[in-house]
Amino acid sequence: MLRLKELTIVPDLETLKAIPEGKVLINTINAYSYTMTKTDRLFSEALQKGDYLIPDGASIVKACRWIGAKSQPRERIAGWDLFITEMNSMEERAILSKTKKTVMFLGSSEKTLGKIREKAAHDFPHLSIKTFSPPYKPVFSDEENAEMLAAINNACPDLLWIGMTAPKQEKWLYTHWQQLNIHCHAGTIGAVFDFYAGNVKRAPRWWQEHSLEWLYRLLSEPKRMWKRYLIGNIKFIWYMIQEKQTRQ
Questions:
Q1: Maximum Cα interatomic distance, the chain, rounded to a whole number of Å
Q2: Between vectors from CA 54 to CA 48 and to CA 56, what angle results, nearest 5°?
Q3: Span 146-166, pLDDT tens digits
Q4: Pick from 27, 31, 23: which is nearest to 10 by CA?
């Protein structure tokens, strides 16, 4: 079972920027995803066995300090931060090499992916954007999985993004990791697809800087988010109390 105190978590943005090139699996963890691992063994395994885990939530940073975890992240690194850091780095590499670099987006609807292609063409003109929209369903068939894998492998990306919401995206990437013939960073970034496409508005900077982005999302989408942030946060606090007690 996943325990926060035993995880290796990226401590800060500078460490994230220094991740070496090659086939690297990058996941994020926040309070909600942590609570889901308690009832989802495969999700727990996917987060533990990925190459890098970033603290996408002030609650994770604060909890690590409070329970005396092995990792002591110094700052929150949102999925958005991962996305922008990697995209800027890839754009710089493309400029220096004077060759187009390929970025693959797998997930979301074709409409959202179309918005991503259009915006990325303006923001990152030296990158070639490839996309694939999988069917909206809880479980993919063998044929659908094969089609998704083929889309990625045929694109031969220099950077891969998976956006199918947690825990589906983490489990899919982890389960099919060995079948991916790629040599690049691959990140599971869920809501970032919608943020970048403009479907969902991110919290203003003040809310982000004061660790209140979760509250902004709750107020913006109360019907969809109340279970995640109210019930989920209570569960997370309870699990942290348990971890704190087992350390004493």
A1: 56
A2: 115
A3: 999 999 999 999 999 999 989
A4: 27
